[in-house]
Amino acid sequence: MSFMNIKELLDGSINSIDIDEDFTIPKENYANTEIIDLEKVKVKGNLTYPSDDNLFLDIECSGAMKLNDSVSLEPVLYPFSFKISENVSELLEKDQFTLDIISILWENIVLEIPIRYSEVTNYDKYKGDGWRVISEDDVKDNTNNPFKDLLKEIEKE
Prior knowledge:
By secondary structure, the protein is an alpha+beta fold. The protein has 2 domains: 118 residues, 2-Layer Sandwich (Beta-Lactamase), CATH 3.30.450; 36 residues, no CATH class. It has 5 helices and 9 strands; from the N terminus they run βαβαβββββαββαα. It is elongated.
């Protein structure tokens, strides 16, 4: 279900719509992103329409996206969760009694895509002739920092 029927809510027959569903984001939404695959998004909360003509969505969302690990380039699952508490009245089209929940979810999932994500903890196998991958801790710890001599030169200047 992509569109929620909210006619009863808008005409005052009911006070709120409880939401406790799993939603599937269409693959075409994330085809040109870093996301390889997206599990169903669990959504729990409600939609209310108080007397001030504002439609409020208050939900908690969770799921997992499959991304390429930033270090190993292997596919890894990246769990995410977020809350949406907002007025969605502007998303209603005139004389329409539906709300596109998928577009609202997608707008928020995009914000959850990390710039860089890695599950690699042992960097020993990521090395070659004259290079190696180091952790952030190695950079902070000058004893293992391959750039320590360069840093000393910069500090002298």
